[in-house]
Amino acid sequence: MGMHIKRLREEMAKLGLDAVWITSPENHLYLSGFDNPDGWMLITMNRAFDFADFRYIEAAKREADPDCTVIMPQGGRKVYLLPLIEEEGIRRIGYEDISLSCRSFELLKADLPQCEFVPLGMTLEEIRAVKTEDEIEKIVRAQRIAEEAFDALLKNIRPDMTETEVADELEYQMKKRGSRKPSFDTIAVSGSNSSSPHGVPRNVTLEKGFLTMDFGAMCEGYHSDMTRTIVIGKADAEMKRLYDTVLEAQLAGLAASKAGVPGQDVDAAARKVITDAGYGPYFGHGYGHSLGLEIHESPSPNAKNPEPMPLKAVASAEPGIYLPGKFGVRIEDT
Fold it and tell me: How far, in Å, CA of 222 to CA of 21, rounded?
């Protein structure tokens, strides 16, 4: 974790900041090493303070990075934070304008009237875009859990199951193998419901035709993301063509996925395959997105991103074709 704070301090120096106030759970975990959904941090150029209330204080002292000073706040911010601000001579504070609500920001300014607040913008997201080996290893572990859960599902799946039961079985199998919770609400959509990219599983028996499942596991706060499309019954010629086109598009996108290649070029390589096959209007979402501590992160290999993808970014590769009212196919790997 010390490396993550070091990278943040390099950016703080460029922005002329005395401190950064951290409130989002993802950045709290990234910088402290401790998963506290209600924690806060104050990071200066020399020190890191991790604030944990009564519910989390014991775990924070046990699990937070040794470089962090763990404090249980007593009273309001004027009681526990103001003395630190004065002691450390802090005037310019960076804050997470991406995640801090307007009301929370107004209250923060009212509590610390002598400080100037500077929006961090994408600073932390850009740092987090480049994964360390340790982070990549956690994502891989989460991915392996999801893959094993899918293999287990294939052994247990029956045509009389409901979409809800399929989603629940995937989540159970992931949890059984060490995932704390699903990366996101598991998608399992069959037949005509498979034409909705983010359809909600229904409490109805699986329809014949495509069954698309989008799911992910979590390992120490890091997400995985995968989609598999199988067939209930037999696939006809059109279904096979659809599936093969999506797979070919994914492989074209993967071949284009290299550090330094703009995100939109990766998207274009996959999109060309689908457009050339005559399905262009039916691939309505981006080719992929970065992921890590959040399921959707920047930068993304999609049509809106002209920037080059950085080395050691981790992203999804998930083209799809969705024929309204008929069926749909998506294949996704991380």
Answer: 22
